[in-house]
Amino acid sequence: MSVAILGAGAFGTALAVALSANGPVTLWGRDVGWGRINPRLPGVALPEAVRTGADLRAAAAAADTILLALPAQLLAGFLADHAALLDGKRLVSTAKGIDLTRLTGASALLGEACPSAAVAVLTGPSFAADIARGLPTALTLACARPDAGLALQHALSTPVLRLYRTTDVTGAELGGALKNVIAIAAGVVIGAGLGDSARAAIITRGFAEMTRLAVRLGARPETLAGLSGLGDLTLTCTSPQSRNFRFGRALGAAEDFDAATTVEGAATARAVAALSGRLGEDMPVAAMVARLADGGVSVEKAVEKLMSRPLKEE
Fold first, then answer.
1. Which active-site residues does the annotation give?
2. Which residue numbers belong to the known binding site for NADPH?
3. Which end of the chain is more exposed for a tag (fewer CB within 10 A), N or C?
4. Which residues does the annotation place in the binding site for sn-glycerol 3-phosphate?
5. Which percentage of the chain shows pLDDT scores above 70?
6. What's the pLDDT tens digit per position in 165-191?
């Protein structure tokens, strides 16, 4: 199985490093002039088995399996321009977000744009730096087609990258997207000095929100309790390596945040607010994150509103 990775950011580069243990990998990016060390992954040199290039057509043509390591909000535009190069391939999205315009995850966008492709999602608790350094990592590979999912599981697993397979694409995808929203909330709690007890509460109630919405959209609850939901939620709500957590922490502390850093959870919170409103689902944590990210409410007012909600059974 020949592999290409589209997107030479930190995560795409880390995957290229990891998967090169199985054979040659093509890493495509619009700007790969940095040579063998991506400045977003300092100290990690690309193995010889990784070939970089800016020719998208050549990268896609050379592979039967393509991993799309692109931000969730850029995927639809990328597919509008390049879907013909991808159709008929095995396509694996690593995006963790919900498209703001379509209010869907990456799998729906890929399935519509590339109807002959076998579409899968790779998600779960992982930081690019850990994967690139060869630290043990376990992820979820979700594919509705069992045959394609099994083939991808074997092709993309390595001695230090262990993939667990599921056919619940909706659950895996929403777990990866929604946990970013809750990670922002957890960061706000810590940045505002509200303490670890409050963080534990926001993680727990946030997980309940994640599960309710995902199940409403057809997911299996056990998927949300796995790596792609609870596992990723735990990681991103407790580590400053998480961009979403750092963004929330900056919001909570009223500090500036690097505008050049992609924060998938901010856009996803807005998408969740729209989606939950359409479905009539109560998502108070996600709704408050959307308002905080847009500057529509102060941290103090957000805490007051959440704490003054009607008392009820858990």
1. 179
2. 11, 30, 96, 128, 243, 263-264
3. C
4. 96, 124, 126, 179, 232, 242-244
5. 99
6. 999 999 999 999 999 999 999 999 999
